[in-house]
Design a protein that fits this description.
The complex is a heterodimer. Chain A is of the alpha+beta class. Chain A has five helices and 13 strands. In chain A, strand 8 and strand 9 form a beta hairpin. The chains are: A alpha+beta, B mainly alpha.
Chain lengths: ~300, ~170
Amino acid sequence: MVRPAHRRPGQSRKAQYSLFAAYVIAVTGAVAGLLLAVLSVVDPVGFAQLRIASHEVTAPVARATRSAIGSISGIDDAVSAYVGAGSQNRRLRKELAETRRQLVATSSLQEENRQLKALLKLQETDKSAIANGYLLTSTSTSSKRIALLSIGRNLGVEAGQPVRGADGLIGRVLGSGPSVSQVLLITDIDTIVPVRRARDGLPALAYGRGNGDLDVRTLNIANNPFKPGDILLTSGTGGLYPPNIPVAIVARRQNDGALARPLADPAKVDAVSVLRPYTPEDAEAQLLKSAPGAIPEVPKAP
Amino acid sequence: MNPKGPRLGEPASRWRMIGVPVASVMFASALPLMLPLVASSPVLPPLGLLFFLSWQLLRTEMWPVWIGLPLGLWDDLFSGAPIGTAVFLWTAASIAIAYLSQRIYWRGFFHDWAIGALLVAIIQALAALLTHPHAATGRVLGLVAPQIIVSVLLVPLFLRLTGKFDNFRLKRR
């Protein structure tokens, strides 16, 4: 049983005033906090440095715990893997056989592709990474999906750069500090990635669901062309994410599109690369450099 | 202070009396960013908030009602929610607890659990809605619902933990 509080200050004027002042401060501060929250939603960049500074403080501890016990994430995956082991085994065997068949077909296509590319003298766009690091930790108590990257401005990481793992796209840099930076994952509820289907280049948009999955919607909603197993790549539309980075695999059809699972799981990925932000002008410049005179000058849109 | 050292049975030092509650909340707020856990959904309960509410339920008069301003700001730096969210919501929770402690004069364990659970649920739901103002409301609430359920079940544990810390805080020399 908790002792009742004696908030009533009695006859003392001083006590009455100080209690009243505490309430005034609390209410004023709370309203100011609400305004601040609305402000930082509208302009998240303004407060990014404050947050980065606080993450710099905890980063050494995160580095130490990471090296001490390794990544403890993926516990939920391990449990669900036991539950679905039998059906998963059957499904995987079927997929393996299917993939073998496709691999044979793809190898001949690859050779043909190489020859055609040599004919066109097209060069791959610059895909070299700025820096490599690993994901330290993340905001695991809030609905915002922000991970902490182990490198920062010391290695040239800046806000707005895309981040990928070996398996696929992870997210983009939200802000960078002296030695750590924040990465907004593609599964965050506020991120949208322009994608295309690997098979036929069908353009679509991948929306984060906030729980580790993505919602994929096509631009034309008349029919639902997705099938489970479709691979989605970045399209490069709108800049930022360079084209042809694997993003997700379609898991299930939905009423208005499909549910996809990211190919790179940030919880399991070991190392990530920070890439140069892609701009459509990059691709044009590359094209002009490789074949001068072949392509007429494109007038810039106003 | 006595130069010969503390006398037998003297109350705990002022630093410990003030420092233990504040330090426990601040450490719990920063703890998720020290663990090597890259989560794909809000999997951890809001540790800082649970300690904050437990301290207020256990020792309602210990803190002034504006204590949510500095502690909320600290939590905002680490939680990932827009800065100011916890400043607002935690202070509102302090005022709510202060009000309820006058309405419900003798609070029992289940009163504390109910108040803590209700406040955690409201704060987490509102924080998620403030963080994602453009997303569909149903989806955002569905995202934090499992976390809210876990947090509600953990409230008694945090009350006990806070009680242990309180014993340490007040331990006489």
